[in-house]
Amino acid sequence: MIFDYHIHTRYSDGTATHQEIIDRAIELGVEEIGFSDHYGYYPNNWTTTEEVLSKMVEEVLYYKKSQDRINVLLGLEVDFYPDRIEETKAVLSKYPFDYVMGSIHFINGDNFDSDPKHPIYSKYGINRLYELYYENFVAGVESGMFNTMSHPDLIKKYNYYPTKDFKSLYRQVAKVLVEKSVMVEYNTSGYSRPCKDFFPSDEMTTIFIEEGVQFTIGSDTHKREHLLRNYRLAKDRLISLGLKELQRYQSSPTPLIDFMI
To answer: Residue 252 gets which letter from DSSP?
Structure first.
């Protein structure tokens, strides 16, 4: 069994069409994919807008119903903004999403994800930036909007790490995830980012496993070649850390030992 739940298309910041992704996934032996284009509000060049969201949903539903070569799910990756919760809920309620992933890309209106030299890094300092990131992360979990929180330590993307020990904070985050029955994504794209590490790190993954957090997986695909990127290494890493299974959105969990071919 192979699945990938984090895939972007031309509807946000991807370069491929739905059909191109489906064809590539079938070539790779993938049995289930979830399209999860970006949705958000703050000005940026990677999110789809409410004006085109209905067209995107319509197209995914078409592929979901019109072919039987691969199971297609309708997902969405949503930027979490503490001041836009009700507005976001209203938009999400209009469509039959199979799952919705929450992401933190902005802190107090500043985007830390697109520029390693963004002033936000010096504005707060790395330790405080981590604290603010996880304040937003926990608020996203508690909002009730998301099945899953994606790339849970994206804040380290550009290889910025705090000088203080955050293990106790990670454990608090894990307890909230379990309490609210929200999963986390093991995002394999991190290994191809400047940090050269999966999202989440081994340290965070170990704490999450100890606290009973459930995991899904996704490649954060933005082009055809990204599908399943770093998956074999991710599987070996997760097994070594003690994870037993990966969650699916409409089926029983897949034992990690049986994941992939």
So the answer is: P
Q: Which residues contact 222 (CB under 8 A, 6 or more apart)?
A: 8, 13, 14, 15
Q: Catalogue the E-assigned strands of the chain.
A: 3-7, 32-35, 38-39, 71-79, 99-103, 106-107, 110-111, 148-149, 183-187, 215-218, 245-246, 254-255
Question: Tens of pLDDT along the chain (261 residues)?
Answer: 899 999 999 999 999 999 999 999 999 999 999 999 999 987 777 788 888 899 999 999 999 999 899 999 999 999 999 999 999 999 999 999 999 999 999 999 999 998 999 999 999 999 999 999 999 999 999 999 999 999 999 999 999 999 999 999 999 999 999 999 999 999 999 999 999 999 999 999 999 999 999 999 999 999 999 999 999 999 999 999 999 999 999 999 999 999 986
Any idea what the CATH number is for the domain that residue 164 is in?
A: 3.20.20.140
Number of structural domains found in the chain: 1
The model's pTM is 0.95
Q: Which residues span the domain enclosing 9?
A: 3-258
